[in-house]
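Take a specimen:
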Amino acid sequence: MDEPVGLVRSGETLGPLELVVTRERVHAYASASGDYNPIHLDPEFAATTPFGGPIAHGMLLLSYFSRLLSDRFGRAWVETGQLEARFRAPALVGASISVHGIVRSVTTGQDGEQLECVLRCEAAGQLLVTATARLILGRSEGACAKS
């Protein structure tokens, strides 16, 4: 994760990260988080809800945003990143999702280049989660272009 970030410009696209929300991923997240709500894990119970089946944990979806950002920005995301998200629809277990975004702005600040990115998580054309991410690329990560 210490690799150089390289040049970052306003308008740069991020992703897509495409994957399937598998039962195994949801169960692994439940084990890691301690969230065993039956809406995520019990197909019979989940079938009785308005969703019609098990749904992914919201924080599991947010972890995919973090993966996208850490893949691109490395330690800078881990050390300085902030994420504001809005959940719009659930991701059903079995859904194919796409996580992608764009660098909205790059500005020079006292500590380095300040980035703002807008992110989306979608499944079958339906918007599931939107987010705004902010992070700082310190001078050690390389020169960045102004927006």
Summary: DSSP finds five helices and five strands in the chain. Residues 58-73 form the longest helix (16 residues).
